[in-house]
Amino acid sequence: MARDMSDKEILKMELDQLKKEVSTPRTPVNANCTDTIAFVEGLAPNDPLIKGVPDDKNPYKGDKGGCIIT
Of 34, 46, 59, 70, most Cβ neighbours within 10 A? Predict the structure, then answer.
């Protein structure tokens, strides 16, 4: 696509993109980090990777036996 365009058209496209990016609302990184940490810590009590899976709900535990290689 860019091969079919003149240098002036490419520069106009770049300028339009930069105008869009300038008007994008921004938030400070520390505010985003604070929100992310609060979100993750809020979900941590129910996370099976942190808390583990109870034996009664774990399909891989129990008296199914194991694999024996002979």
Answer: 34
